[in-house]
Write a structure and sequence with these properties.
The protein is of the alpha/beta class. The protein contains two helices and six strands, in the order E-H-E-E-E-H-E-E. The chain has a three-stranded mixed sheet with strand order 1-3-2, with helices on one face. A three-stranded mixed sheet has the order 4-6-5, covered by helices on one side. It is globular, with a radius of gyration of 14 Å.
Length: about 120
């Protein structure tokens, strides 16, 4: 079997809040708790397992999601409706804009703990 990513742990100050935020924005569902984890599954079978940080502080990480063109617009609309800023760049300096890298569209946004989330319509080459 070729190597595949199965899951990753997303450290959060409040796993329920963070999992619900990401699931809502991406149009996914929060799964049943699995031990100390709260999973959000993606279409390709990878889960993001949200876990409460043992401390009040979280080191922000980066997570990128490949989405279809129509879903990109729906995600951006949900973000803006929730008052979440969208940026064209990973440093979150180009507010309110999207990028057109690799012939597709992309945007960055922060989750409740400052993780740098990205949506793209074309994979990086």
């Amino acid at each position: 079997m070729p190597v595949q990513l199965n899951h990753t742990i997303v450290v959060a100050t409040d796993k329920r809040r963070s999992a619900a935020f990401l699931a809502h924005v991406l149009g996914l569902t929060v799964g049943a708790p699995y031990g100390p984890f709260l999973p959000v599954g993606t279409a390709n079978g990878v889960t993001l397992d949200f876990w409460d940080a043992p401390e009040e502080r979280v080191t922000p990480q980066h997570y990128a999601f490949l989405v279809e063109e129509a879903e990109f617009d729906a995600i951006v609309d949900r973000l803006r409706s929730a008052g979440v800023s969208v940026y064209a760049d990973p440093h979150r300096r180009l507010a309110g804009r999207i990028n057109t890298w690799n012939g597709g569209r992309g945007a960055f946004f922060a989750d409740p703990d400052g993780h740098n989330m990205e949506i793209i319509t074309r994979p990086y080459t």
